[in-house]
Amino acid sequence: MVLFFKKERDRLVGLLLAEQRRLALWLPVGLGLGIAWYFRLRCEPGVPELLAWAGIAVLGLGWIAWRPFALAPRVLGGGAATVAVGFLAAFWATHRQPPLPDLPARATIVTGRVVAVALLPADGPSVRRLDLAGAVLDDPLDSGMPPLRRILRVRLRADDPLVPVPGMMVRVRALLRPPAPPSWPGGPDRQRRAYFDGTAGSGTALGRAQTLGPVPGASSLEGLRERISARIVRVLPGAVGGVATAVLTGSAVGMAQADRDAFADAGLAHLLAVAGLHLGIVMGVSVAAARLLLACSERATLYWPCRSIAAFAGLAAGIVYVVLTGAHLPALRSLTMAALVVLAIVTGRRALSLRGLAVGAILLLLTGPADLLEAPLQMSLAAVMALAAGAEVTRPLMARLTEQPGWWRRVLHHVAHLAQASLLAGGATVPVVMAHFGTLQPWFVLANLLAVPLMALCVLPLGLLSLFLMPWGVESVALVPMGWGIGWILDLARMVSGWPAARLAVPAMPGWGLAMWVLGLCWLCLWMGRWRWWGVSLMVLGMAAPFLIVRPDLLLSPDGRTVAVRDGAVLRVGPHPGSERLVEDDWHQALALPIVPLAGSAACQDGLCLLDRGRVALRLRGAPPVRCAGLELLITLAPDDAGCPGVRRLDTLETWKNGAQAVFLHPAGPVVLSDRSWRGTRPWVLALGQHGVPVLPMAQRE
Fold first, then answer.
1. Do residues 224 and 212 make contact, with C-beta atoms less than 8 angstroms apart?
2. What is the largest CA-CA distance in the chain?
3. Read out DSSP for 349-418?
4. Three-state SS across 517-535?
5. Strand (E) or helix (H) holding 419
6. pLDDT digits over 680-698, tens only?
């Protein structure tokens, strides 16, 4: 036995020595593990735990400094240090945020300064949403309280004539609400997202907004964006114009919901959101144009560093494009990675490499640890990692396609590159889409194989040309053929979305399943030897995770007013299906079951449902009293229910204290899981009744 373990240890050491140049690629993985460890805690770590993590980081780094060329310090010490640094970075980022405020549950008058204006998609008139900074709540109970330290988002009425601009002081009567809690234990945590996004909550205007003080002039950027959108829509009306404004200004409000759904069902929704794909096309076109212009000058070609100049020109064009489209967070992340690519080109390094990805991932994780839990960063890192690793493996094969002359070989080379990119990037992000959106688009590879070349070769280049032609008023020369390309993409999206099984609903993936997939993908992409294929087993386990866990049989909404019962292949919701659309959408996504009314269940009579052989009772408002004999759990939506002695009861008071409830019907008896027990006590988890920290006025000076 001792000889066996010694032999296996020597084999592992040999594998690590052969891959020692790849060890640095695992630094962001260690940071991610530390960040995930912090966010999985049920309560905040105390001083002893923080000192322990800091000690691990110091000891690990000290071990490496003492023996920098030894394998054990680099693997064990470096791994422990990166995990500890990730944990501490997440703790620091959490406690730098101001607490979530306690917003009033009644209508109140809000006064604040507009910092951003967003047009929300709507089939009718467009609706504007204001981001208000320094908001003050003007009512008797909140009088004298300091301004909110977070952004308050207020949705204006559709008939509001106000034309808001950043810097404007507005006053509006609105109904406010805090960030919504999870609809089921383990569901999407919008409170955590709002906590790290710097938002306090949202509201809906009950009246028209009024301006206070002098009205600032419209910012040049906002005005430019609106003028560009107006000129695009004038030439390209309808859905074609909506796609054009989406890729050139970042706003797709002109698209109907049916077309948005078609893009989503075909796996082409990423074409409407400005991110890495669009930025790469813009920078690629700009680099090619700069190289072409420089090649026209003999002196520049012979004496200037044309490659570096073109790279910087592409980066400048990318910065302008990101700013023009609103500088959204995914685009900013992509711009960070693009800047690293330009740096690699200038310094003579490989543009697309795993080392460049590791540097970019470390920067992103240290500056925004909470982004690791969100879909955009997960999809970006998974896609780029798969592309970089795939390029390493297939580079010799792709080179053979261009060794011999022939135009058809070059065409085949480009088609192979596009197919490889669609397959690798799309395949790497499939589980992320399943985990966050509960859907699977089987035809996404084919749709992207046709749509992405159209976007890269026709739509965006012509769109950029139209921007240059707009000062002379001849933008239609480029917009009209651009509209042809967009029309082809729209037809493709509508056609693919109508195919059988174009969009499959899958049950929610647990966190450990997504972690298994990501770790398996890292193992497959970051190593070079044959043992890299061990990661496939982890990826298969992650993909199967949604079908391996036990699903809840009953769900109770966070406010205790809506209940759902899993009945075979349907999810029965009552007492009034459709009354809580957000909660029902989350339940549908979690269980991948169609929603039908609860009244049609055979186990329910006159608003009283007896489940699990009479051990669980569900009583709606107005239902007859329940018999307590043999009852183990009572779920009641009736406020006058006296309950049963010794029987556990779930009602509005229980959800007020502990959030949404999930019930599992086991042979040994029903098991109840609450949102409070799942998330624990964290800074982003609101207190009882979903209340934040009171915004108290300053004490009077004595």
1. no
2. 96
3. --SS-HHHHHHHHHHHHHH-GGGGGSHHHHHHHHHHHHHHHHHHHHHHHHHHTTTS--HHHHHHHHHHHH
4. HHHHHHHHHHCCCHHHHHH
5. helix 407-437
6. 999 999 877 777 777 766 5
Burial class (CB within 10 angstroms; exposed 0-12, middle 13-18, buried 19+) of 334:
buried
Alpha-carbon distance 459 to 526, whole Å? 35
pLDDT at 592 over 60: yes
136 beta partners: 111
Q: Name the band, by pLDDT with cuts 50, 70 and 90, for residue 259.
A: confident
How many angstroms separate the CA atoms of 617 and 632, rounded?
Answer: 8
CA distance 261 to 449: 19
Taking 60 as the threshold, does the pLDDT of residue 565 lie above it?
Answer: yes
Q: How far is CA 559 from the centre of its chain?
A: 26
End-to-end CA distance of the chain: 78
Q: Is the pLDDT of residue 123 over 70?
A: no
Q: Mark out the alpha helices in 42-162 (DSSP H runs).
A: 47-66, 71-72, 78-95
> Scanning the structure block, which residue is given the tokens 């690519």?
341
Mean pLDDT of the chain: 86
Confidence band, pLDDT 50/70/90 cuts, at residue 254: low
Question: What are the beta bridge partners of residue 176?
Answer: 203
Q: Please, which pLDDT band fits residue 454 given cuts at 50, 70 and 90?
A: confident
Are 158 and 532 spatial neighbours (Cβ–Cβ below 8 Å)? no
Provide the pLDDT for residue 3. 60
Say what the pTM is.
0.90
pLDDT tens per residue across span 570-589 = 999 988 888 889 999 999 99
Residue 513 in tokens: 């399943």
Max mean pLDDT range (338-347, 412-421, 661-670): 661-670
Res. 19 pLDDT band, cuts 50 70 90: confident
| Of the candidates 698, 693, 699, the residue with the CA atom closest to the CA atom of residue 100 | 693
How does strand 199-205 pair with strand 127-138?
Answer: unpaired
What is the average pLDDT across 239-243? 86
pLDDT digits (tens, 9 = 90+) for 518-541: 999 999 999 988 889 999 999 999
Q: What angle do CA 368, 370, 376 make, to 5 degrees?
A: 85
Rg of the chain, C-alpha, whole Å: 28
Q: Which two tokens stand for residue 698?
A: 């300053």
Q: What's phi and psi for 176, nearest 5 deg?
A: -95, 155
Return all residues near 81 (Cβ < 8 A) that are at least 6 apart.
30, 56, 57, 59, 60, 61, 64
What's the DSSP call for residue 602? Answer: T
Q: What is the rounded distance in angstroms from the CA atom of residue 481 to the CA atom of residue 236? A: 10
The three-state secondary structure class of 118 is strand
Residue 237 CB contacts under 8 Å (≥ 6 apart), including other chains: none
For the CA atoms of 64, 69, 70, 74, the dihedral, rounded to the nearest 10 degrees, stands at 40
**Token digits for 372?**
């690791």
Q: Where is pLDDT greater, at 661 or 167?
A: 661
pLDDT digits (tens, 9 = 90+) for 72-120: 888 899 999 999 999 999 999 999 999 999 888 788 999 999 988 887 7
- Residue 91: C-alpha distances to residues 29, 54, 431, 686 (Å): 18, 12, 27, 18
Task: Report the amino acid identity of residue 552.
Answer: P
Sheet holding 608-611, edge to edge: 604-605, 608-611, 616-619, 633-636, 648-650
Pairwise CA distance, residues 15 & 26, whole Å: 15
Q: Which long-range contacts (CB under 8 A, 24 or more apart) does 72-75 make?
A: 74/20, 74/23, 75/16, 75/23
If phi > 0 it is left, if psi is from -120 to 50 it is alpha, else beta; for residue 311 that is alpha
